[in-house]
Amino acid sequence: MKRFFLLVLLITFLIFSGCLFKKPSVEVHKTSKYWSMRNAKSGSASAQKMLGSMYYLGDGVPKDLEKAYAWYKLAANQGDAGAQKFVDIITVLLTADQMEEAQNQFLTHQSEIKNGK
């Protein structure tokens, strides 16, 4: 029941945010990923959340829930409540092995951001 509720919540969010109806060009995706990655690695919570969304939806990048989890978790740790909701959703969807890999990616990114890499 919890998974069903989270799925309905996610679909509703995607419909009202316009994510399901617009398909930007490949160049827009490349530019968006470049700037989001650059800003996310500088510690921007909004850019981290954007990357999480891109990986969650497979929007301009291959869909990857482990990477989505890592970027959402970084944004959530800075107080982004929306990112925390997606962390909760993805946590339900991942297997134990996938969750371990997602957590490792999160820790790697967190360390790189702290060390300015």
Defining key terms:
mainly alpha; 117 residues
- Note poorly predicted spans: none
* Class inferred from helices and paired strands: mainly alpha
- Biggest sheet features: none
- Can you give the mean pLDDT? 83
Domain count: 1
The total of beta strands comes to 0
Number of helices: 6
Shape: globular
> What is the succession of H and E elements?
HHHHHH
Strand proportion, as a percent range, falls in under 5%
First-last Cα distance: 42 Å
- Oligomerization: single chain
Percent helix, as a range, is over 70%
What would you say this structure looks like, in words?
There is one protein chain. By secondary structure, the protein is mainly alpha-helical. It has one domain. It contains six helices and no strands. α2 packs across α3, α3 packs antiparallel against α4 and α4 packs across α6 (96-114). It starts with a helix and ends with a helix. The model has no long low-confidence stretch (mean pLDDT 83).
